[in-house]
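To assess whether ligand presence alters the predicted conformation, the chain was also submitted together with adenosine-5'-diphosphate. Input:
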Amino acid sequence: MLYGGIEAGGTKFVCGIGNEQLQVIERKSFPTTTPEETMEQVFDFFDKYKGNIASIGVGAFGPIDIQIESRTYGYITNTPKLAWQNYHFVGALENALSVPIYWTTDVNAACYGEYMAGYGKGKNSVLYYTVGTGVGGGAVVDGKIVAGFSHPEMGHMLLQRHNEDQFEGICPFHHDCLEGLASGPAIEKRFGRKAQTISFDHPYWTIEADYLAQCVYNTTLLYAPEVIILGGGVMKQPQLLELIRQSFKEKMGSYVDTPTLEEYLLTPRLADNAGLIGCLALAIKKLNH
Ligand code: ADP
Ligand code: ZN
């Protein structure tokens, strides 16, 4: 039997087909435009597997409605991407493909991917952040994706501003939240050019590391997870992880005895496939419920 995965990101979609062992058999990526255009490509991708896929796991950009009893379950809700506002994602998929759908956020799916097949494998608790166009976080504890009245919005936690940082932030909702200060577009706005063009030894990276270390500090105190994984485009700066570890160590002092930082703070083992593999694993989980 085969399973489908859809990593529905704000910038691009990744569709994939995989097997029970979470091996990816086919993968296709295309830009996120309008629901009409993008979903047409999704349906096209899965068309030739019709009848052979048992279920599909979806990790979507949000906010999304994940409350089964809600009238708008399966919808993307008040996203700044206007074309996708109040789009009934799960309904459209069910209509087109007639298979059970597991529905969660993109970062929850990536977290679940690392939990099943990456650095979280064999562990009971995994926290995952993506630092990219936005910042998002997800948690898996004892095999369950953590949720309450809705999914967490960890990327908007408030931070203490670094004393050398005058930047006003880019989040329209909050002053001094993680996404507003440390996402890729926040870096781009500070410098007037893409984050990937800032040289690796630029002093800014210690400020970025300070913000991400605050995030890891808060996360450690809230969840005491066995591992924290930091993914997304900004984490492709190779020096950043070690700067975050150092800053985290200074902030934490000796208060909490965490696992050794080389095993505690990591970038995703599955690299850019964490989301898709997580979606495949969630597709399988859907049938075992
Ligand atoms: P998305 O969040 O849209 O799914 P990414 O996780 O790739 O996609 O994040 C894109 C963001 O990451 C952009 O703001 C981009 O400038 C930034 N980025 C990509 N590569 C790097 C890099 N090597 N160093 C710093 N920032 C990067
Ligand atoms: Zn915010």
